[in-house]
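Below is the data:
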Amino acid sequence: MMPEKNCSRCKLSEFRTKIVMPDGNPDSDVVFVGEAPGENEDLTGRPFVGKSGKLLERFMEEEGLKRAELLITNTVKCRPPGNRDPTKEEMDACRPFLEHELSGRKVIVGLGKSACRSLIGYEGKMSEIVNKEMTININGKDSIFIPTYHPAACIYNNNSKSELKRTMRIIKERYM
C-alpha cells in the first residue's frame, strides 16, 4: 500500500514537494523508521539524505552495514513545515502506509522520539528506553523493536552518538 501521487490525507500535503517513500532493500528483515522528511528529503523524495542521513550512513558503515541492505522510512511521508515534529493526526494519516512497510519485518528500529511515540506510544525520555529491545505487533505479527536516538541528536551529544553506534552493532551482530 502506497500513497497516491496526489495524496491529501493530511495537511502536510499542502507543503510538500515530493512524497518521500521508503529507500533501500524492500525485502530486508530490518527497517529503520525516522520521524519525517526534512528539506533535502522533500526535494529528492528519498529518506535520510541530508546531514542526519549522512551521519546515519557513516555509523552504519563503521559497523559493516550498508544502506542498500536495509529499508529506511519515516512515520510520515511529507515534510512538516519548518521541520517541526509531525502531529499525532499526521502520523495517524500515514499509519496505514507505515504498517504496510513494517508488516512481517524481523526488526524495527525507531530513530528518535517521534518514531517511538508513533510505534509504541512512548512519551518519556529516550535515555530510559534506548537500545532496550521489546516486541511490538504490526498487523497481527510480532517484530522486535529497538528504540534509539535520531542521528540529529548525535550531532551535539556524544552519549547519543555512542548509543546509536551501539544500535548499529546490535543490528549487525544479531540480525544481519
Observations:
- Residues 7 and 13 are 7 Å apart (CA to CA).
- The radius of gyration is 15 Å.
- The chain has five helices and six strands.
